[in-house]
Amino acid sequence: MSRSDDELPITDGGASVRMQYEEPTAIVDTVVRGVEAVDEPPAPDRPLYDWIEPEAMVDLFAHAAAKGGDVRLEFAVGDCTVVVTSAGTVAVRDDPARICPTE
What we know:
Distance between the termini: 44 Å
Number of strands: 5
Number of domains: 1
Shape: globular
Oligomer: single chain
Structural class: alpha+beta
Helix content: 25-40%
Organism: Natrinema pellirubrum (strain DSM 15624 / CIP 106293 / JCM 10476 / NCIMB 786 / 157)
Protein name: Halobacterial output domain-containing protein
Number of helices: 3
Strand order of the largest sheet: 1-2-5-4-3
InterPro entries: HalOD1
Domain Halobacterial output: 32-93
């Protein structure tokens, strides 16, 4: 898989990253790279499918692209919040308080 300059992370300062993908099939790799860039210290080795069904995510965004739909998906991966949009953006931020609120 080749990488263009558009796929390189754009840091927003602090513990967050914003990346672009061009095809729905690239979403999974983009999410994994984003989480790896933000997650400090790295979470134990757990596959992405422990957090979300990757194939369903790809199918959702492929369907949205085919129908011209606008989709925004937000989910947690460890202490990170991941936001994927049908506009081709994956944003990842380290956000432990939001994912695991104190009672």
